Amino acid sequence: MFDFDLFVIGAGSGGVRAGRIASGLGARVAIAEEYRVGGTCVIRGCVPKKLFVYASHFAQDFEDAAGFGWQIGERGFSWQALIASKDKEIERLNALYVTTLKNAGVTTFNERATIKDKNTVVLADGKEITAEKILIATGGTPFKPDITGIEHAITSNEAFHLDEFPKRVLVSGAGYIAVEFAAIFNGLGANVELAYRRDMVLRGFDDDLRSKLEHEMKSQGIKVHLHTQIDKIEKCEDGLNVTFHHGDVSQFDAVFYATGRTPNTAGLGLENAGVKLAANGSIPVNEYSRTNVPNIFAVGDVTDRIALTPVAIKEGHAFALTEYGNNPTSAEHDNVASAVFSQPPIATVGPTETEAKEKYGEIDVYVSDFKPMKYTLGGRDERAFIKMIVDPKTDKVIAAHMIGPDAPEIIQGVAIAVKNGLTKAQFDSTVAIHPSSAEEFVLMSTKRD
Q1: Are the C-beta atoms of residues 439 and 432 closer than 8 Å to each other?
Q2: Does residue 207 contact residue 292 with C-beta atoms inside 8 Å?
Q3: Same domain, 29 and 154
Q4: Is 338 among the domain residues?
Q5: CA of residue 25 relative to chain centroid, distance
Q6: Fewer CB within 10 A of the terminal residue: the chain, N end or C end?
């Protein structure tokens, strides 16, 4: 009856995984992508951002090298060279994704697809294609508020393609994208200011980590303005004049907005198939990623569950196993580890201290605050902080939080232990790797009052 068993709209991480696995299980699969295969993470998100984080950290590394006996000569930075290297790597990854789909037997349409009805999609060239099932995996897009001059602002989408490096940058927002790019621009040599309408950066993360990151950002020269909003942006001869809500006016070369992301559902034609949307435009789904229309599914950021690439991949894989592998599988969304590639980086798994108190009542909290060994000779006045939260009734470690060098690499291993319910006693019985920052997780013995 149908041209394909499955038609996937959106070739990001979740869509590609779903299409590849479904095809491997015998389904006839097609996928449509209007931009480039790989999605936000590969093309304009996690991957290029992490490359920029590496680039921006060399300034600190050069400074610290002197304490280890290195003599560093004249230094210089080329924004254009960084962009070129980044573009080359993204091209390589894009080609790998394209090849992966081809080798899996997935038919790829390099154009936009919209929904005509519950079994029909329409390509940009007008061609109609039928499918027994449709999977929406279109991700999210940066949110920009409706203020005067917002057209002059940039988001993470544009930041990876600027022709010239901005020397004066204002970052609006204080989520993970905001603090990451504030550190990137600062590390590459820009004068950076960050404006946020609330009282502390990184809302939703543990308060100790939030406070310590804000302190380190200020120590590195980033000016943080809390309880501050932008009223207006005006283009002028020397840059952009920004008027804040309290009336002050400052000038910048770039205004970078990182005030959240919205599900990318506008104009998809979901209403033609009767798919219900939430108030924020996201697609509600059940534990098997099924929408209110039985043959239409959605995975990834477009569902507004947990907006992380590995989660989208898990959801896409689970969908394929459920629908084509005769193996009903739901992607778990509890104890998902995450990282913020700020400087210093943050990594976490499990609830914050506040959330843990609300859920468990009585909790035991262990902390360790120390100077990483790397900085003892480098002379950098930067500290690391580790927190472990334990349920005293079961002795299970229910959360782990860290800010400091290599935090994401360390928490990945700790997350396995937390996910599988290991106890504080089992952590304590583990022999430490010395000297390392990670050893603090098996050495903490004093509970914080």
Answers
A1: yes
A2: no
A3: no
A4: no
A5: 30
A6: C
Q: Which of 225, 246, 333, 434 does the annotation list as catalytic?
A: 434
For the chain, helix (H) and strand (E) counts, in that order, are 12, 21
Per the annotation, the verdict on 434 as an active-site residue is yes
Residues 312 and 318: their CA atoms lie apart, in Å, by: 10
Q: Is the CB of residue 265 less than 8 Å from the CB of residue 10?
A: no
Amino acid letter at 380? R
| 45 touches 36 (CB < 8 A) | no
Task: Please check whether residues 87 and 123 belong to one and the same domain.
Answer: yes
For residue 395, pLDDT over 90 is answered with: yes
| Per-residue pLDDT at 39 | 87
- Residue written as tokens 């903490």? 444
Closest to 51 in 3D by CA, of 193, 256, 188, 210:
188
Pair 286, 427 in one domain: no
Read off the tokens for 332. 């778990």
Containing structural domain, residue 20: 4-141+262-324
Tell me the mean pLDDT in the region 42-57. 95
Residue 160, in any domain of the structure: yes
Place 260 in a pLDDT band, splitting at 50, 70 and 90: very high
φ, ψ for residue 90 (rounded to 5)? -65, -40
